[in-house]
Amino acid sequence: QVQLVESGGGLVQTGGSLRISCAASGRTVSSNAVGWFRQAPGKEREFVAAISASGGDTYYADPVKGRFTISRDNAKNTVALQMNSLKPEDTAAYYCAAGTTAQAMGLRPADYWGQGTQVTVSS
Length: 123
Known about the structure:
The chain contains 1 helix and 11 strands. By secondary structure, the protein is mainly beta.
């Protein structure tokens, strides 16, 4: 069992930065791959970034490559997503999910999700 809680969302201007976090409990982050997803109103959920259980492999969706960085801190059981050069199209509710690497990448449905944190980028 894994419980996930996202935090750090907020309002930022175009070109600004924001760092959101996913805190895990019940099972350590180190034993699960973790992925970030986002969903805007009226749109489908889309994959953003993922990190392997070991932290040795990371994966990014094309729209965020070079701007977002995913990392993990096993001592704190957290996974962070550093978002730089934010654009209005990044506006969405961001969710983290834990499981296998395939689940973290959105290739298979994940069993564990956080409640989401809202990121709004003003134009």
